[in-house]
Design a protein that fits this description.
The complex is a heterodimer of chains A (about 350) and B (about 80).
Chain A (H helix, E strand, L loop, with lengths): L3 E8 L16 E4 L5 H8 L3 E9 L1 H6 L1 H14 L4 E4 L6 H18 L3 E5 L4 H6 L4 E4 L7 H16 L7 H4 L16 H13 L29 E6 L3 E3 L15 E4 L11 E3 L7 H5 L7 H10 L4 E2 L2 E4 L7 H17 L4 E5 L2
Parallel strand pairs in A: 1-3, 1-4, 4-5, 5-6, 7-11, 7-12, 7-13
Antiparallel strand pairs in A: 2-3, 8-10, 9-12
Helix pairs in contact in A: 1-6, 3-4
Chain B lengths: L1 H6 L4 E5 L2 H7 L3 E4 L14 H19 L7 E2 L2
Parallel strand pairs in B: 1-2, 2-3
Classes of the chains: A alpha/beta (about 350), B alpha/beta (about 80).
Chain lengths: ~350, ~80
């Protein structure tokens, strides 16, 4: 039997074209296998093979969404594939969104099996986990060896029309679809066992996880913005030149609080970005491009706002866990409140 | 971070380039920005023109902060 034809989607980094400085590249089609595609071909064995790889820069994809979607779709379609595989994207946010977007589009337009893979905290996971099968991966590329065989196995299952098991059996991120099966032990026994584990402080797995709707109600609008004290917060990693507190370029373990009293403009000499997840050239030239200190000072002197808070808070948002981000913001939000800040402008790259 | 600031009772506006991510995360007031490496600028134009772009986005941020919202709202 002929091998099933697979098209693989990669970003500029995994295609070994370059890092953030190449994130702007437009979609391109290459015949055959590129980079991590090798691990997939190995896992596919005699059953399937990557015939072509579509590569697109992460920034290009997210900044030119409609154009990128159309181009990538055309490229994939031209290969007439049986299966589409995107990623895995691990914890790379823009890449995850691109993988999810393309997998969903190709599933709907070409009606072929699609599989992606990413880390559970990747924003692409929440956005697309109900639309397409997504293998749950580790948060960095060290998880490739584990992810590729799982993605390949699920793709083959789908292509052959075999029954997909539960998320725990087939390693995908739970998508809200229930899969019926028979438990060997009856409910009362399982419940008592779970209770004993809980009482003993041992780990246990609930059979009925509560849905996690973490939404916060919007606060009332500012009544008189001309009297409001406004603070800047950013996940874009702007720091004083030299990054005095050594905020990590990714997976940040801390945030910074920096004094901007008297500053009317950020310059190449005064500030830079510590962020490792986007091309830093533009932010290093002029950090106002990420945190608008110059314009807010202008607004302050024109009386459009009451005042600009003396400190801004900053961290690098790439690969930083939800738990860390939450902890940072809990801490500095209390400070902001105590300092009488009325509103926050938060910028993200 | 945007949710924790909101939870602390401080109105917050999120200026960001990839709006779908902001919506997924749960920001309530969102203003779209220019590009990932320069959300509030554009190196392709002069510094003066860039400042106009930045001013424009900041004006929208003020509009967002002074507008009552009951659900996630993108201020285009």
């Amino acid at each position: 039997m002929a091998k099933l034809k697979v098209v693989h989607y990669l970003n500029q980094f995994f295609a070994q074209i370059g890092g953030e400085e190449m994130a702007h590249i437009a979609p391109e089609l290459r015949q055959g296998v590129v980079g991590p595609g090798l691990a997939f071909n190995q896992a596919f064995g005699d059953e399937a093979e990557i015939v072509a790889t579509v590569i697109c820069g992460d920034s290009y994809f997210n900044e030119n969404l409609e154009d990128a979607k159309a181009k990538v779709l055309e490229m994939v379609k031209s290969q007439n594939p049986d299966i589409f595989v995107a990623g895995p994207a691990f914890n790379a946010g823009r890449y995850g969104v691109a993988c999810g977007t393309m997998a969903e589009l190709i599933k709907n337009e070409l009606n072929i099996p699609v599989v992606s893979g990413m880390y559970i905290e990747n924003p692409g996971a929440d956005m697309f986990k109900q639309a397409v099968y997504m293998i749950s991966t580790r948060d960095s590329a060290t998880g490739m060896r584990d992810a590729a065989p799982k993605m390949a196995a699920l793709a083959l299952k789908l292509a052959k029309g075999e029954k997909v098991g539960s998320s725990a059996e087939d390693f995908y991120i739970p998508n809200g679809t229930r899969v019926n099966f028979f438990e060997e032990e009856r409910g009362s026994k399982r419940a008592v066992n779970m209770l004993l584990k809980k009482l003993g402080g041992k780990p246990f797995v609930t059979e009925f996880p509560m849905p996690d709707f973490d939404r916060v109600e919007p606060n009332p609008a500012i009544k008189d913005i001309t009297k409001a004290k406004i603070a800047i917060v950013t996940s874009g990693g702007i720091v004083p030149k030299g990054n005095p507190d050594r905020i990590e370029s990714s997976s940040a373990q801390k945030y910074g609080k920096y004094d901007i009293e008297g500053l009317t403009d950020l310059t190449e000499a005064s500030h830079e970005t510590a962020h490792g997840g986007y091309d830093p050239v533009y932010a290093n030239q002029d950090s106002d491009r990420v945190i608008p200190v110059d314009v807010l000072r202008e607004f302050e002197s024109q009386g459009k706002i009451g005042s600009l808070h003396r400190y801004f808070y900053t961290t690098t948002g790439n690969g930083t866990s939800v738990a860390s981000s939450k902890a940072f913001a809990e801490e500095f939000s209390a400070e902001l409140r105590n300092d009488g800040v009325d509103a926050v402008i938060l910028t993200s790259t | 971070m945007v949710k924790e600031i909101e939870r602390a009772g401080i109105p917050v506006v999120h200026l960001c380039t990839v709006v779908p991510i902001s919506l997924t995360v749960g920001a309530n007031r969102i203003v779209p920005a220019i590009a990932i490496p320069y959300p509030l600028g554009n190196p392709a134009v002069s510094m003066e023109e860039e400042k106009v772009i930045r001013r424009n986005i900041c004006e929208k941020a003020l509009v967002a902060l002074t507008t009552e919202v009951t659900e996630q709202t993108v201020f285009e």
